[in-house]
UniProtKB/TrEMBL annotation:
Protein name: DUF6242 domain-containing protein
Domain of life: Eukaryota
Family matches, as CDD domains: Sialidase_non-viral (cd15482)
Annotated DUF6242 domain residues: 48-177
A Pfam family it matches: DUF6242_C
Ranges where the record places region Disordered: 593-614
Naturally occurring in which organism (per UniProt): Byssothecium circinans
InterPro entries: DUF6242_C, Glyco_hydro_beta-prop_sf, VPS_Associated
Length: 614
């Protein structure tokens, strides 16, 4: 018997075990194919990678440097004054997190004479201290730096000396000091006649050799960013404003001689970056898609600039992002996007599909047309993953005091990818066994969380077709037999945030039995060489399908799309704002994130172990 590419599964099994989908009667966005999702959209690129958490590590302001094949990060704990250190070989996996037995508020770090050096102020005073380490794990010192005091120093190696710049704790004026061995400091003097609190340093090429570049916010002019450059022969150049850029703390580094800085906006937490070939003229760019950034640190390592920062939420979780070759300027968006364009993105997850609003907003979207599927197997079973692609999902559904509503834009996002999986006895060696073809169970997935149910606990529509309830707007898959018609996420009494299924509160249903219609069943798969198993070459796409942005309560309607009454709208606004204040609103509803493409999913790889919970 013929089988599907990359698997021994008989082709007719895909329709034989396909689920029936029970949509809510007011659903307006239905499963589509990739060509529909791409219609009218563009393929865009974000130079900075999506921020990832650095384990369980937390701080307000980190510092980082590359040394002996690692990125080393030092920081003060978010809830203590202890200095911590951790390191990474790739910027993603961080190890050897430990306290180094010293306390401060904000440390600075640099490499000098094949050692790591940190300078920092005391926890209970502005007195400066210095420590060093040959491996980042075992530290010498600390020793006092006599006669110098600050709270936020900057440190860099320049002309075979270690230079430190800082704002004096006494008068806020900028000072510099230098050391030939890291321990003994001299030539302490004012650098420039400006007041600041947080200078940043790096080294870039100049007209007559290397020069030290300092960028700092001018505290007397609304944190206007200022630059000045230093050589031992010429001293500091007159300070110059960096036009249009303001911040309270700057992260500064360089890549192949090009200066690069990153900072949070002066009036919000949005991140920005700039590059300069000479320290004078700067190219500016907004850094998108970084959650809630605070004060960043930059580090050049390998072919990338890494950015580390503590989030500005209460726990100050540390995040990491990176940009290749220091290139912060994205290419122009590509229109008329095809599957080949998505395949050409290769292994780079920074590409994303800017989905046209017309493909998912409004009330005249086409009905369901497509079921994607992927197949994996082991010795005893086949696993059919049914994948449902949507051009977007509308706002969060809630229940108020006697009425149901859907919010805009809370909970919405362009693009949506939902997953349901069936385990069937058979597989590589069990196809002729006594249980071959029987359903062992299914996985229902909603919001990335899969729940396993044995066959006896599954609501069946007909024969081997499971009845899967898709929640209104968010399309999450639920087992109504076990989980009920309205699985709540937040139950605050008079106000409920939930997943409204068909028959929730007596609502109507749209039943889709795709195997009985002209629905297209299209296989997605990647073989052991990383190549698509068929003509669905977009299977390798790892980028985001849809934009990312902050959401807010713009408006709300009843489930049928009609406007709320004045009283119901007032109640919705009041209770929602109260929910925000007492932190009852799930954080994922406040950020719209398009889903990752299939190339980032375990189930698309036919050669890997089965990608479902067991």
């Amino acid at each position: 018997m013929a089988s599907l590419p990359g698997t021994s599964l008989p082709p007719d099994y895909v329709k034989k075990y396909a689920p029936s989908i029970k949509f809510h009667g007011n659903e307006r966005v239905f499963p589509c194919d990739i060509e529909y999702l791409l219609g009218g959209g563009t393929l865009d690129y974000r130079p900075w990678s999506e921020a990832e958490k650095v384990g369980s590590q937390r701080t307000g302001v980190p510092a980082a440097v590359a040394f002996n094949g690692y990125i080393y990060m030092v920081y003060t704990g978010a809830h203590d004054a202890e200095i911590w250190v951790t390191r990474s070989r790739n910027g993603n996996e961080w190890t050897d997190m430990r306290k180094i037995g010293q306390q401060t508020s904000v440390p600075a770090i640099a490499v000098f004479k094949n050692k790591l050096w940190i300078t920092y102020s005391g926890h209970h005073s502005a007195q400066m201290y210095v420590s060093c380490s040959s491996d980042g794990l075992n530290w010498e010192g600390p020793r006092q730096i006599q006669g110098q005091s600050t709270h936020v120093p900057a440190l860099v190696q320049f002309e075979n000396r270690l230079y430190m710049c800082y704002a004096s704790d006494f008068d806020g004026q900028l000072y510099q000091s230098q050391s030939d061995d890291g321990w003994n400091w001299y030539n302490t003097k004012r650098s420039v006649d400006r007041k600041t609190s947080t200078p940043a340093l790096t080294v870039i090429p100049g007209p007559h050799g290397d020069q030290m570049l300092m960028v700092y916010p001018d505290n007397q002019r609304n944190h206007q960013l200022v630059q000045t450059r230093y050589t031992s022969s010429g001293g500091w150049t007159p300070p110059q404003d960096i036009a249009g850029q303001q911040a309270s703390i700057v992260g500064l580094s360089n890549y192949s001689g090009v200066a690069i800085m990153a900072y949070s906006g002066n009036t919000n937490s949005q991140l920005f970056s700039s590059t300069s070939n000479d320290g004078i003229n700067w190219t500016f760019s907004e850094i998108l898609f970084q959650g809630s950034p605070f004060y960043p640190a930059l580090c050049s390592f390998g072919e990338k600039i890494y950015m580390l920062y503590g989030g500005n939420d209460e726990d100050k979780q540390i995040y990491v992002s990176s940009v290749k070759h220091g290139n912060i300027t994205p290419p122009p968006p590509k229109p008329n996007v095809s599957q080949q364009d998505l395949a050409n993105c290769g292994d780079d997850p920074n590409w994303w599909i800017n989905i046209a609003d017309r493909q998912w907003r409004g009330d005249k979207n086409p009905g369901p047309t497509t079921v994607y599927f992927a197949v994996q197997e082991d010795d005893s079973a086949w696993y059919i993953h049914y994948i449902f692609l949507y051009a977007g999902q509308n706002g969060q559904t809630v229940r108020g005091g006697g009425f149901n509503a859907q919010l805009k834009s809370i909970g919405e996002h362009p693009g949506d990818l939902e997953h349901f999986a069936v385990k069937i006895w058979g597989g590589t060696h069990g196809a002729a066994g006594p249980n071959a073809g029987q359903v062992a169970g299914c996985w229902f997935e909603a919001h990335g969380n899969s729940r396993w149910y044995e066959a006896k606990d599954i609501p069946w529509d007909v024969d081997n077709h499971a009845a899967v309830s898709a929640a209104l707007n968010n399309h999450g898959h639920w087992n109504a037999k076990i989980e009920g018609d309205n699985p709540l996420e937040v139950d605050a009494g008079v106000f409920k945030i939930g997943n409204f299924l068909s028959h929730s509160w007596g609502d109507s249903e749209i039943l889709w039995q795709p195997w009985l219609t002209t629905t297209k069943f299209l296989q997605l798969g990647i073989d052991s060489t990383g190549r698509p198993v068929n003509d669905q070459i977009w299977a390798t796409f790892r980028g985001r399908m849809g934009d990312s942005y902050k959401t807010d309560l713009d408006s709300a309607t009843y489930f049928n799309g009609s406007n709320l009454s004045a009283g119901d709208w007032a109640e919705t606004k009041t209770i929602f704002k109260l929910g925000e204040f007492i932190k009852k609103i799930p954080s994922d509803l406040l950020t719209a994130d398009g889903p990752r493409g299939p190339g980032d999913r375990g189930w698309v790889k036919t050669s890997l172990p089965v990608s479902v919970p067991k």
